[in-house]
Specification:
InterPro entries: FAD-bd (IPR002938), FAD/NAD-bd_sf (IPR036188), UbiH/COQ6 (IPR010971), UbiH/COQ6_monooxygenase (IPR051205)
Helix content: 25-40%
CATH class: Alpha Beta
Keywords: FAD, Flavoprotein, Monooxygenase, Oxidoreductase
Strand content: 25-35%
Pathway: Cofactor biosynthesis; ubiquinone biosynthesis
CATH topology: FAD/NAD(P)-binding domain
Structural class: alpha+beta
Pfam families: FAD_binding_3 (PF01494)
Enzyme class: oxidoreductase
Oligomer: single chain
C-alpha cells in the first residue's frame, strides 16, 4: 500500500469527531488519525478546574452510551458532572394517559444521564492529549477527491490551502456545515414546522432524578435533571417545542413571563418555576441521507441523520454508529485492507442502518402520534400509554428504546491492550 500523510482524516473535532478519534486510538492504535477542526485548540481551552455554568448546554446520554464511554475509559471522569436519570415520566397534558420507567426495575443505577457538552468535550480533549491523534486547528476541510492511494483532502489552515492524503475521510462536522452537500451527498429533510427552545430552569421542588416527557396540544416538552453547583436537585434542562408564533411570543417575554408561560404548559409536578436561563432555539426537522457512504468517505453523527430532540436519541444513535464504524475499521486494518474501501464502509452502513431506521421510527412516531389533537387519536394514545404502564413486555421494549439498548450493540474489544473492560454483546440489555 502506498504511503500517505495519514490513514484517516476526520472533518470536525466536536463530540462525534473527538469520540471517534479517541475510540480509534484505543482500539486501533497503529492507525494514523488526523482531525481537522475549525476552532483553535490551546492549553487555555483545557482548564485544570472546570466550573459548570448555569447556562451550560447539555446532552442526554442513554445507558448504552454510558457503557461505551466506560469501555473507552472516559466514564469515571465524565461522570463527575453527569446527573443520573433514575425515573422517566411520560404523560399527555390534560389527559389520563401516562407511563413511568424506573431504573431499579431494570437492576441499574440509572436509565441515562445528562452531561454538560463542554465538560464532555474537555474530557475527550484531555484523553486525546495522551494519544498519537494529530490535530490540524484552526483548519477546515474544503473538498475531497479520489487519489492514487485513497483520497486527497483539501484543507485550509492559516489562510493557506493544503492537500492531505489518506485512505478515508469521515465527515463529522454536523448537519449544517455544507461539506456534506459539497461532496454530493443527497439529503432528505422533512420539517416539523416547529422549533426547539433550549434552556436551563430552576424549580422549587426537587426533580428527584426524574426526566419528564410531557406532550401538549402545542407540541412536546422535556425536562431532564441537570444539576449545577449551588442548586442540587432543583435544576433541569428544558427542551420546549414551539411553532414560530409561539416562539416569538416566548422570546418577547421577560424571564418571569417565560417561567409563568412554562408553568401554564407543564404544570406543578416540580413546584414553581423560579428561574430560566439563556434561551437558545433552532428549527426542527428530520434529516436523513439514503447513502451516507461511498468509496473513501463516510458521514457520521448529525451529518448522516438529525432527529427531533425531545426523545433524546440523536447523540446516542450517533455514538452507536461511531462504534460500529470503529469495529469495521479495526477489522479492515488487521486484515491489511484500506479502511476507505467501499466494502468496509458499506459494511458499517449496513450494520448501522437497522439501528438508525428503528430509532428514527421511534422518535418520529412519538412526535406524530402525540402531535394529533383529534379526540379519537388522543383516546388511542392515552390507552397506549396506560398499556405501556401495565404490560411488562411493552414496557421493556419502550425502556430499551429510551436507554439506547434496543439497536445493534457494537463491540469494543480493546484487545486487552489498555486493560479496559470491553463491552460484550449480551451485557447491554435493560
Amino acid at each position: 500500500m502506498d504511503r500517505t500523510d495519514t490513514d484517516l482524516i476526520i472533518a470536525g473535532g466536536g463530540l462525534a469527531g473527538a469520540t471517534l478519534a479517541l475510540a480509534l486510538a484505543r482500539e486501533v492504535p497503529t492507525l494514523r488519525v488526523t482531525v481537522v477542526e475549525t476552532f483553535p485548540l490551546s492549553p487555555e481551552a483545557l482548564p485544570a478546574d472546570y466550573q459548570p455554568s448555569y447556562d451550560a448546554r447539555s446532552t442526554a446520554l442513554a445507558w448504552g452510551s454510558r457503557l461505551i464511554f466506560d469501555a473507552l475509559g472516559l466514564w469515571p471522569e465524565l461522570s463527575r458532572h453527569a446527573t443520573p436519570i433514575r425515573h422517566i415520566h411520560v404523560s399527555d397534558r390534560g389527559r389520563f394517559g401516562a407511563t413511568r420507567l424506573h431504573a431499579r426495575d431494570h437492576h441499574q443505577d440509572a436509565l441515562g444521564y445528562v452531561a454538560d457538552n463542554r465538560w464532555m468535550g474537555l474530557c475527550l480533549m484531555r484523553a486525546l492529549q495522551d494519544t498519537s491523534v494529530r490535530w490540524r486547528a484552526p483548519a477546515e476541510v474544503l473538498d475531497m477527491m479520489p487519489g492514487e492511494s485513497g483520497v486527497e483532502v483539501t484543507i485550509r489552515e492559516q489562510g493557506e490551502q493544503q492537500i492531505l492524503t489518506g485512505q478515508c475521510l469521515v465527515v463529522a462536522d454536523g448537519g449544517r456545515s455544507g461539506l456534506r452537500e459539497k461532496l454530493g451527498f443527497v439529503t432528505h429533510t422533512e420539517r416539523y414546522g416547529q422549533n426547539a427552545l433550549i434552556a436551563n430552569v430552576t424549580t422549587s421542588e426537587s426533580h428527584r432524578f426524574t426526566a419528564y416527557e410531557r406532550f401538549t396540544d402545542s407540541g412536546p416538552m422535556a425536562l431532564l435533571p441537570h444539576d449545577a453547583p449551588g442548586e442540587p436537585g432543583h435544576q433541569s434542562a428544558l427542551v420546549w417545542t414551539l411553532n414560530d408564533e409561539a416562539l416569538a411570543e416566548i422570546l418577547a417575554l421577560s424571564d418571569e413571563g417565560r417561567c409563568q408561560r412554562l408553568q401554564d404548559r407543564f404544570g406543578w409536578r416540580l413546584g414553581r418555576f423560579t428561574r430560566i436561563g439563556e434561551c437558545h432555539h433552532y428549527p426542527l426537522a428530520l434529516t436523513t441521507v439514503d447513502a451516507p457512504v461511498r468509496s473513501g468517505v463516510a458521514l457520521v453523527g448529525n451529518a448522516a441523520h438529525a432527529l427531533h430532540p425531545v426523545a433524546g436519541q440523536g447523540f446516542n444513535l450517533a455514538l452507536r454508529g461511531l462504534m460500529t464504524l470503529v469495529e469495521q475499521f479495526r477489522n479492515a486494518h488487521e486484515q491489511g485492507r484500506s479502511i476507505g474501501e467501499l466494502s468496509v464502509l458499506g459494511a458499517y452502513e449496513q450494520h448501522h442502518r437497522q439501528d438508525w431506521q428503528q430509532t428514527v421510527r421511534f422518535s418520529d412516531s412519538l412526535i406524530r402520534v402525540f402531535g394529533q389533537s383529534l379526540p379519537v387519536v388522543a383516546a388511542a394514545r392515552d390507552a397506549g400509554l396506560v398499556g405501556l404502564d401495565m404490560i411488562p413486555g411493552a414496557k421493556r421494549w419502550f425502556a430499551r428504546q429510551a436507554m439506547g439498548t434496543g439497536g445493534r450493540k457494537p463491540v469494543l474489544s480493546s484487545s486487552n491492550r489498555s486493560g479496559r473492560k470491553a463491552v460484550p454483546n449480551g451485557q447491554q440489555n435493560g
